[in-house]
Write a structure and sequence with these properties.
The protein is mainly α. About 60% of the residues lie in helices and about 5% in strands.
Length: about 200
Amino acid sequence: MELRANSEGRPEMDGDRLQGIIDFLQAAERLKDTLRSGVTSKGRPESTAEHTWRLCLMVMLLCRELEGCDMLRLLKLCIVHDLGEAISGDVPAIHQTGDDGRAARERIDLTTLCEPLADDLRREIIELWDEYNEASSSEAVYAKGFDKLETMLQHVAGRNAPDFDYEFNLSYGQQQTRRHPLLRQIRRLVDAATLARMGEQQGPV
């Protein structure tokens, strides 16, 4: 990274590199308006940016329980995992299938989104996304598990439609949430909360 001194003698960042970062951030801002199928506790659709924020908050609070976990890397994986949705949007969890081409499309979108960035920054983001997608590190495995759990927690917290399918939660993300004892422990709590919401939905017997 090239640094130049400004009039006060302080290092100044290369202008093209900085402009590329600003352009990328402005494009990524679209995640704030990229809506998901889940709704908030007040009943409005949540955005992908909001999902990513709470996912990062979750891992910040829990990563100390993951022996040997690189928290910075885990946070980076969580930050980039849905960036491609800024272009093509989110696919609701209930419509996701194992081999629907979604990952390939999202990677293409991410590559397009990263075009303004300098080579090293673009490469870092895409490599992090590949690591997440392939679950090729322990941090990526954790990120995938926490991603599913955050989604399930939102389903439980949301002011959902009367016919909301809470039972979907009970089968969602089973593979990703069983790969560490902490993920399994949280899963049990979320499943219990899901069953409680199902009971409320059915009303008194």
